[in-house]
């Protein structure tokens, strides 16, 4: 894609990755983009780099606007590989450029690049850089989602370069939120925001909340939020900030996601009567079978609802591998304010349900016990018990949801 002007003399010079489907273990069915930004001023400045596989495309985009060798400053808001690995190629062209990053950014990036050969300036919250008519303000955002992270605020244009915050993994010809909403839908955009937050930023909710509060206290006016992935926010800024506030507070809809896998369909046969019990109790239900659904999609759907029920057969005295992988992935994301229950079938030992509850307790989720287990294949009596289990969980969920919404 060609460069796109965001505001007067501020350009998107990034790339769109239509093909990527695995982003460090997180499935990206929509693809993604790697965004970086060029400011034309007395001292031209580049904000962030891109993935090394696409750095030539970004340089071509820059070349359509300016000779890249005229760039005086490069700001690195985040040193993760998808943004910073393209820096090495840029430094071949710009050996005398001024680099700006946090102290932790310098420490981390020096593990990849010999920074002793370059002009590195470390910055902290409150520091500024005058590049001509514009002033760049730096705001450290450690653990959103790496220790090195920071925002750059372009004061005169009221543009916040937000690195990974407010991003989405979505490949699209539309560069702005309103364009995507017009050509697709607000629902798809919000789903991409939730998917990104649930699978990447969920563990850092408290940090994100404090930074949003800090920005509000600074009285910063924001006309545009430009993240390092996905579309740029210029129209629905209040909505994305509201959505983030809801997510960091772990708000959820009254509903339940049943996530399961099965060996010989015995565990699978338990799913529908549990779901019917929930539905008869007035609880919306979504059913996700692992091995047929990316775990990142399962996490996103689980994040949307207050209730999570997980089903697994017992294999080799433990949880079925695909379910164990899902729970391990979920545990690392540290969800909160969710009601959990477990069910499953077994042949002779039956530890899976117990093990799943132990994992949920380690996550500090609220648990609904006891779970339900059946030997080999569920009988009619077992299926009736599954239905009653769904009813009972639905009643408990309504009480728990009401308490969490206060």
UniProtKB/TrEMBL annotation:
One annotated GO molecular function: oxidoreductase activity
Span of domain Flavodoxin-like: 256-394
Domain of life: Bacteria
Family matches, as PROSITE patterns: FLAVODOXIN_LIKE (PS50902)
Species for this entry: Thermodesulfovibrio aggregans
InterPro entries: Flavodoxin/NO_synth (IPR008254), Flavoprotein-like_sf (IPR029039), Metallo-B-lactamas (IPR001279), ODP_dom (IPR045761), RibonucZ/Hydroxyglut_hydro (IPR036866), Rubredoxin-O_OxRdtase (IPR016440)
Protein name: Flavorubredoxin
Pfam families per record: Flavodoxin_1, ODP
Protein family (similarity comment): In the N-terminal section; belongs to the zinc metallo-hydrolase group 3 family.
């Amino acid at each position: 894609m060609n460069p796109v002007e965001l505001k007067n003399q501020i350009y998107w010079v990034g790339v769109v990755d239509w093909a990527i489907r695995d982003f460090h273990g997180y499935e990206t069915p929509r693809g993604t983009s790697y965004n970086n930004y060029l400011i034309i001023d007395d001292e031209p400045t580049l904000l962030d780099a891109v993935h090394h596989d696409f750095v030539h495309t970004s340089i071509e985009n820059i070349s359509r606007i300016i000779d890249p060798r005229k760039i005086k400053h490069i700001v690195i808001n985040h040193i993760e590989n998808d943004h910073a690995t393209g820096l090495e190629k840029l430094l071949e062209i710009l050996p005398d450029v001024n680099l700006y990053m946090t102290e932790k950014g310098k420490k981390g990036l020096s593990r990849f690049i010999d920074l002793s050969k370059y002009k590195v300036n470390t910055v902290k919250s409150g520091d500024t850089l005058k590049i001509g008519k514009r002033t760049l303000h730096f705001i450290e955002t450690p653990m959103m989602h790496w220790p090195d992270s920071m925002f750059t605020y372009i004061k005169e244009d009221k543009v916040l370069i937000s690195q990974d915050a407010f991003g989405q993994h979505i490949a699209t010809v539309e560069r702005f939120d309103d364009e995507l909403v017009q050509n697709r839908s607000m629902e798809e955009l919000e789903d991409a925001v939730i998917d990104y937050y649930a699978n990447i930023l969920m563990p850092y909710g408290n940090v994100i909340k404090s930074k949003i509060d800090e920005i509000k206290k600074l009285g910063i006016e924001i006309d545009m939020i430009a993240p390092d992935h996905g579309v740029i926010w210029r129209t629905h800024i209040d909505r994305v900030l509201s959505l983030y506030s809801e997510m960091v507070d772990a708000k959820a809809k009254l509903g339940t996601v049943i996530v399961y896998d099965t060996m010989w369909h015995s565990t699978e046969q338990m799913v529908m009567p549990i779901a019917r019990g929930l539905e008869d109790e007035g609880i919306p239900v979504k059913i996700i079978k692992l091995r047929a659904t990316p775990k990142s999609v399962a996490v996103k759907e689980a994040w949307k609802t207050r209730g999570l029920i997980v089903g697994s057969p017992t294999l080799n005295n433990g949880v079925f591998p695909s379910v164990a992988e899902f729970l391990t992935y979920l545990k690392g994301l540290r969800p909160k304010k969710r009601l959990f229950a477990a069910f499953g079938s077994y042949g002779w030992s039956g530890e899976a349900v117990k093990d799943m509850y132990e994992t949920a307790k380690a996550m500090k989720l609220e648990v609904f016990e006891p779970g339900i287990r059946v030997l080999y294949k569920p009988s009619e009596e077992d299926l009736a018990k599954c239905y009653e289990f769904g009813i009972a969980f639905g009643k408990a969920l309504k009480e728990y949801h009401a308490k969490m919404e206060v």
